[in-house]
C-alpha cells in the first residue's frame, strides 16, 4: 500500500508540473518533488524539460543541496566539469559528510580519466553512505576502466552482498570471471549466489551460459530451464536452451524453444534459421525450406540465411535452385565472399567453368583467404587454358601461403608446360622438400609433365 501511495503522489506531482507549464500558473513543490520530476525527464531524454524543472526548483528552493547536486549531475553530463567542481567544493564546505558530493567528485575525475582518484573519493563516500551497494558498484566500474578485473570483481561481489538483486552488478561480476578465464570459479560463485537468491532468473541464465561455454550441455539445459520456470517470458533463456539442445541432437525440443521465442516477440532471423536447421537435421525438408525462406524474408542482409538455403539445395544437388538463391544473395550483397564461393561451386558442378572461375576470382578479391579457394580458381584457369594467368595467380598466392606444397607442385607443372624448365625444376624441388608423398599432385594435374624422363630423374635424385 505504501508503494502504491508513493507512486500516486509521484504521478500527481508530474501531472501538476506539466499543467503548470501549459497554463503558466506557478505551483509550489517541495525540493524532493522537483528532484523526482527532473530525474524523470532526464531518464526520458527530455533535457529541456529537466532544465525548466531545475530552474523553477532552484527559484523556490535556492538553498536545496539535493537540487544543486542534480544541477551538478547535469553539468557533468554536459562536460562542464570545472563549473561542476567549483559548485561541489562550495557544497563540501557546507556539508562535508554528504556522500553524494564525493560520488559526483568521483564522477568528474572519472570523466577526466583519473580513475585512481575516483576510487579514492568513492571509498570516502563509503564512510558516509547508507547505500554501500551502489558505491561498491561504482568502484567496480572504475576498476573496469583501469582493466583491473580482479579488483572490479571484488567490488561487484561486495555490491551483491549489500544489494543481492542488483542485476548490473551480477552481470558485471560474471563478465569479470569470464574475462579472467575463470569459468569454473564463476559457476561456483553463481551456485552460492543462487543458494541465497534461488529465484534469480539472471543467475540461472548466466550459469547456463557458462556451462555451455564449457560444453557441459546437460547442465546448461538444466540451468536455462530453471530460468524459464522463474520467468516464462525470458526469450534469451529459450534461445540459449535451443542452442544447447541442438548440441545434444535433441532437435524437436530445440525447435520448441526457438518457437517459444517467436511467440513472445517479433520473429528473429536467427531463431527462424535455427528452426530450419533443426528440421533439416530431422529430415523434414519441407519445413526446413519453409523456415529458410522465412529467414531471408525477415532479414535479407543476413548472409547465414542465404547460405543455409543455398547449401540446402546444393546438398540436394538441385543446382538450378541453389544458383537462383545465390544470385539473389549476390544481388543484395555483391561483395560477400561466401556468396561468390558458392556461386563458383554451383557453376562448377553445372560445368559452367567460366562463371565458376569468375566466382572464385571474386571470392578472393573480396577477402577469401582459404587455400582451397585459390587452388580451385587456379585449376579452373588451367582447365580453360589460361596458363600464364594461372602462374601469376599462384605466385600471388605464395605471398599468403609461402610453404604450401600444393602451390609449388602446380607452379612446377605450369612452368614445365610453358617450357621454362629452370623455374619448373625450382618449384618441383620446393614441392618435394615440403611434402614428398604429395608429388602425385603433379601426376594427377600434369600427366604429360609427370611422364617426362627428366622430371622422373629429378624426383628419384631428390628421393636418395
Short description:
This protein has helices spanning 2-23, 31-43, 47-60, 65-77, 81-94, 99-111, 115-128, 132-145, 149-162, 167-179, 183-196, 201-213, 217-230, 235-247, 251-264, 269-281, 285-298, 303-315, 319-332, 337-349, 353-365, 371-383, 387-400, 405-417, 421-434, 440-445, 447-450, 453-463. By secondary structure, the protein is mostly helical.
Give your account of this protein's structure.
By secondary structure, the chain is mainly alpha-helical. 79% of the residues lie in helices and 0% in strands. The chain contains 28 helices and no strands. It has helices at residues 2-23, 31-43, 47-60, 65-77, 81-94, 99-111, 115-128, 132-145, 149-162, 167-179, 183-196, 201-213, 217-230, 235-247, 251-264, 269-281, 285-298, 303-315, 319-332, 337-349, 353-365, 371-383, 387-400, 405-417, 421-434, 440-445, 447-450, 453-463. Helix 2 (31-43) packs antiparallel against helix 3, helix 12 (201-213) runs parallel beside helix 14 and helix 14 (235-247) packs antiparallel against helix 15. The longest helix is centred in the first third of the chain and has 22 residues, at 2-23. The radius of gyration is 33 Å and the shape is elongated. Residues 1-5 have low confidence and may be disordered.
